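Recall from the previous chapter that SMILES is a line notation for molecules. Here it describes flavin-adenine dinucleotide.
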Amino acid sequence: MGVITAITTAAKSALAIGGLKKLTFIPAMLATLAYFHYEVIDPESRPFNQKILREEYDFVIVGGGSAGSVMANRLSEVEGWNVLLLEAGGHETDISDVPLLSLYLHKSKLDWKYRTQPQDTACQAMIDKRCCWTKGKVLGGSSVLNTMLYIRGNRRDFDQWESFGNPGWGYRDVLPYFKKSEDQRNPYLAKDTRYHATGGYLTVQDAPYNTPLGAAFIQAGEEMGYDIHDVNGDKQTGYGWYQFTIRRGTRCSAAKAFLRPVRLRQNLHIALFSHVTKVLIEKQTRRAYGVEFIRDGRKQVVYAKREVILSAGSIASPQLLMLSGVGPAQHLEEVGIEVIHDSPGVGRNLQDHIAIGGLVFRVDYPVSLVMNRLVNINSALRYAVTEDGPLTSSIGLEVVAFINTKYANASDDWPDIEFMMTSASTPSDGGTQVKKAHGLTDEFYDEVFSSINNEDVFGIFPMMLRPKSRGFIKLRSKNPLHYPLLYHNYLTHPDDVGVLREGVKAAIAVAETKAMKRFGARFHSTPLPNCKHLPLYTDEYWDCLVRQYTMTIYHVSCTAKMGPASDPMAVVDPQLRVYGVEGLRVIDASIMPTITNGNINAPVIMIAEKGADMIKQTWLQGGYAKKRKRRSLPTCSKIQQLDLINKKNKTICSIQR
Ligand SMILES: Cc1cc2nc3c(=O)[nH]c(=O)nc-3n(C[C@H](O)[C@H](O)[C@H](O)COP(=O)(O)OP(=O)(O)OC[C@H]3O[C@@H](n4cnc5c(N)ncnc54)[C@H](O)[C@@H]3O)c2cc1C
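With both inputs in hand, we obtain:
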């Protein structure tokens, strides 16, 4: 009976994901998974979706993503505190657990499906010249859609944050917080207790499955004179195997890591499908006292006795601040929002990592990941029974390299390019999901890649680590359900074009090593449609190329940056408290002053670990809050005056008392 239920659940999950009809093996895989594995994979079930909420909690956390999941766990460790986590999406699915299938989640129900405004500097090969900014709308947030790469960044990133006037954020301060959440499953890495730890909530392990290309990438690095080492350890420059937030072959999202184990805590409520539309801030005292949200089609309110914490991610957190009257005054007035606090930095300083898509290298042997060859019932059985095989591969990501272009000072060990080396690339699924996820036009894909659909290839994605270009986010209107306007501004700083160009050249050089030549590696040099007037392999050609298939690595961040009070663009202080408003913090990817030197999920989790400790210090050791008087709750009639009522439904007071 349990198995039947599990199969039904699995089938429902499959239906929840758009575009899966194309993969006919999925039902069989899910049935296999359900039969062999369902309860065994993770004995901890999904958390409850709390239907009846209290009217007031000590802490209200907005957004259950990478940061929000950590916050909910750590704050509810304090038995005397009641914590509410409000999440706009629902639960993750059995499909989102499968590492190989993460691209199938893009443009699905689990994705907010943001698209940037069209701009001429980048993403020219994409439909309407708009980049697709995939973001998780699900409990676990973007950690449910990400490629699970576990990279902490460079010690200099954090020392630089500290040097900007953020005491307590230097590398020596943050390292313990990286270790606090880590459960490192590689015994050799775990032995290095200076940098790694075991027993934390977040499982970090090596890839259960590698192709022969993985070892070849490592050999290519050696041949080029790089160290092969743990890039999360003492030194970053060099080559190494990727480490993943994978647990026994399946995704270890932040929800799985931090929420499932504590789902029985009585003092933690998790409300799904709850879209927060505003933070309630008392005008006179400028204190945040609750949030408005929409659930089941009804506007509701919930109050926060101590603090509201925005962990809605780098797009929604600044959006919510602005909707609540905290942001650039002129812009708020333009869209008709009453200004509570003029904070010019909200939505500004946007940083992201971009790489060059489409650097595809052909090989002569059947060694790479070709979707129609690997996705079959055998792989499904291997995944379900032995927790390995190609389905456990994170879309072919195997090896990472941190290298220096001529724009970086190599002696600093602060490299400016990360190679993401994959045993698959854009045409490996025959022009289906990758093309769709990246939003490539049919014309571009057909001209450049259709001739090598489903052939054996590998990819090297050079990712620029420290962009100088800055984007921004604006409100489209004061309607909280309207998506904000997103301006990437990629490659508007000339140095960024230079770094990426040098990254492309360095990637091409990797394919020339003996290690790669053994497989017959050669660059797929079909000229790009908009660049074919330029001679191949020239700087002019590369400069054109980088603006075509510009690939976000989905690290949008820094949109509500942390900084000292003397910095007018700082949105939060080094304790992550919003300037100008009491009782409100932002704790997620938005608060980074500058983007970290690598993939950012691990740093976001670190930020939340540290943020949770700061909150505990504030309240448990008697900070300002201890002396605060208990605020009396607005009555229903007061709520009406605050216009919190969904008049259409004639709801008088939607709070469940
Ligand atoms: C496709 C993809 C691949 C990536 N790959 C990697 C990788 O391999 N390694 C890596 O280190 N990083 C990767 N990243 C980046 C990393 O996952 C994110 O930067 C990180 O998860 C961000 O955490 P966050 O807490 O700031 O936001 P999120 O995890 O995005 O969480 C925000 C949460 O808030 C919710 N929310 C938003 N608005 C509201 C609202 N109004 N009301 C209620 N809830 C709301 C969202 O639904 C979401 O659950 C990837 C990201 C993506 C999208």
